[in-house]
Write a sequence for this structure.
């Protein structure tokens, strides 16, 4: 209906231009919005106020001229002029019935649009360091990123989903060394485990797999060397140990004893094992990617140097104390940032600059980074680096997600990938199910703090918003089953022909909700707000349940029966469409 009204207004404005009532080159931006108060009609347009200055005319007078020039439409009952020049459209009562036919005709495509016009968007999300299993904190970014991607695709954008694999740098060295030390334990050589190493059981499992595959090929005498290394910081405040210096020394020792080839075997085996687990975990969560992009590839293909050369060309770097710095303060940052350390290794930031430039060079017009809220201060400097390289910084849109906090009763569960004491995403899925996890993760706006209520997510009650929505879908399926049991069928054509019999307030309300869905979906996509869809589904389910409790569908009057069945089948379709976009199933029974 909004599109129909927009076409009517465009035709009227064009007619006024032809009649020289409006300049031929006036800037026309037609906006049709739903009114908040039904007494003011169904839709409002402010075009008269927007064009009044160019037309050299009072807005209310111009609104009247536009109304007089509007083509006739069977869908418009009347038009009022309100306030300084708003045009309020009252849609004909019969027009509301059209949405039922539209939904049933479009099916799974209902609500989808081409507003994105095929623009290439890359959505990078999760991208957790492959140093252990995904935990419940990662789950929210996964659910949010997947939902945003699917919404954008539904709105006509060309979406590319990507996971950035941090498979290089110091964290990978700590991980490989941790596995090697557990491998030595499996070979019968117990050593004090570094306080800064990775301690989870998964490390021991990888070490055991290494020993099973390679025997004692990586067994080297470490005990004699340990006393020569910087002391570890075993407990906070104990001695003068330095845990960072200790782990770095262990890394160098491992590389020296193993040699480059064997060290790389351990690192690659560890990375392969953890990444495989992450892929499986996300796949079972309904999250899939077109590409898993390797950080190592940026280093090995010269992409980092290419990015630095672009910054040098624009005089945005300088050298100091042997390191190469980015003039971040020139682009709004609080201080300048190191790109390449004095030892020649690029920093995490330096590699990240190269990665984002790589995205631009792959032809993406919008770069969406779904990041944890702790990156709030980090992303502006990445935007600044793009600007320094000659790329509009607003191409990069960081979407900061607050981590969900898991509670068992009133006790908050602490998570740490180093200590191994964390609740994994897999454990959460096993406890509440993927559907509940996906839905609850996107129920709040992504910037908002979230406490994940395990008991609510598992409950089969109307207090559980997902259960309430899925139950609405299942209820409609049960009506279909009741039809079969009574040897009746739904005659869709008869139903569509008798929609004018749907005069109950509950029926009008449901049709109004259905008509809102396409514009709501479009808005949710371009604003990156899947929670809007979740809340819409709650509202639609509530309206349906109220209708179900107040009226009988399978009645003697076949005309009214088929009309009501057509309406609830349209509701069922929209419930399924919305749940699918959120990565949630629409069950036929509960």
């Amino acid at each position: 209906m909004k599109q129909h009204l927009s076409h009517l207004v465009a035709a009227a404005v064009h007619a006024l231009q032809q009649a020289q009532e409006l300049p031929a080159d006036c800037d026309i931006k037609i906006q049709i919005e739903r009114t908040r108060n039904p007494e003011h009609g169904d839709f409002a347009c402010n075009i008269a106020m927007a064009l009044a200055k160019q037309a050299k005319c009072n807005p209310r007078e111009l609104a009247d001229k536009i109304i007089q020039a509007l083509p006739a439409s069977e869908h418009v009952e009347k038009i009022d002029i309100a306030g300084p020049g708003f045009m309020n459209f009252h849609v004909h009562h019969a027009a509301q019935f059209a949405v039922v036919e539209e939904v049933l005709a479009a099916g799974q495509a209902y609500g989808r649009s081409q507003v994105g016009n095929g623009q290439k968007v890359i959505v990078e999300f999760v991208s957790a360091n492959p140093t252990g299993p995904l935990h419940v904190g990662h789950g929210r970014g996964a659910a949010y990123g997947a939902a945003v991607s699917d919404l954008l695709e539904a709105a006509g954008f060309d979406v590319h989903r990507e996971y950035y694999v941090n498979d290089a740098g110091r964290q990978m060295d700590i991980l490989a060394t941790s596995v090697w030390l557990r491998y030595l334990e499996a070979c019968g050589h117990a050593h004090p485990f570094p306080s800064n190493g990775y301690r989870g059981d998964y490390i021991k499992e990888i070490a055991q797999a290494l020993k099973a595959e390679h025997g004692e090929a990586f067994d080297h005498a470490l005990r004699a060397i340990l006393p020569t290394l910087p002391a570890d910081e075993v407990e906070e405040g104990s001695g003068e140990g330095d845990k960072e210096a200790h782990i770095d020394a262990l890394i160098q020792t491992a590389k020296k004893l193993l040699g480059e080839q064997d060290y790389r075997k351990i690192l690659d085996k560890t990375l392969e094992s953890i990444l495989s687990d992450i892929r499986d975990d996300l796949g079972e969560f309904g999250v899939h990617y077109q590409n898993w992009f390797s950080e190592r590839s940026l280093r090995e293909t010269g992409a980092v140097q290419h990015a630095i050369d672009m910054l040098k060309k624009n005089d945005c770097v300088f050298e100091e104390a042997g390191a190469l710095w980015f003039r971040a303060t020139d682009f709004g940052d609080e201080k300048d940032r190191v790109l390449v350390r004095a030892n020649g290794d690029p920093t995490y930031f330096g590699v990240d600059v190269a990665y984002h430039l790589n995205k631009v060079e792959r032809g993406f017009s919008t770069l969406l980074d779904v990041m944890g809220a702790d990156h709030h201060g980090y992303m502006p400097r990445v935007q600044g680096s793009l600007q320094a390289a000659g790329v509009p910084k607003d191409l990069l849109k960081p979407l900061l997600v607050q981590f969900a906090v898991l509670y068992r009763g009133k006790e908050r569960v602490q998570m740490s990938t180093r200590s191994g004491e964390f609740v994994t995403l897999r454990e959460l899925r096993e406890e509440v199910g993927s559907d509940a996890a996906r839905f609850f993760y996107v129920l709040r706006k992504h910037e908002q703090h979230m406490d994940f209520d395990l008991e609510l997510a598992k409950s089969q009650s109307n207090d559980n918003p997902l259960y309430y929505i899925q139950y609405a879908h299942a209820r409609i399926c049960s009506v279909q089953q009741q039809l079969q049991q009574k040897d009746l069928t739904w005659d869709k054509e008869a139903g569509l022909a008798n929609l004018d019999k749907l005069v109950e307030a509950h029926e009008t309300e449901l049709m109004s909700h259905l008509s809102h869905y396409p514009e709501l979906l479009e808005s949710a996509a371009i604003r990156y707000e899947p929670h809007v869809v979740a809340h819409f589904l709650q509202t639609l389910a509530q309206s349906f349940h109220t209708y179900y409790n107040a009226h009988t569908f399978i009645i003697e009057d076949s005309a009214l029966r088929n009309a009501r069945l057509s309406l609830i089948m349209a509701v069922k379709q929209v419930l399924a469409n919305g749940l699918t976009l959120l990565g949630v199933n629409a069950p036929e029974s509960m």
Notes: Residues 243-284 form the longest helix (42 residues). The chain has a mean pLDDT of 92. The two ends are 35 Å apart (CA to CA).
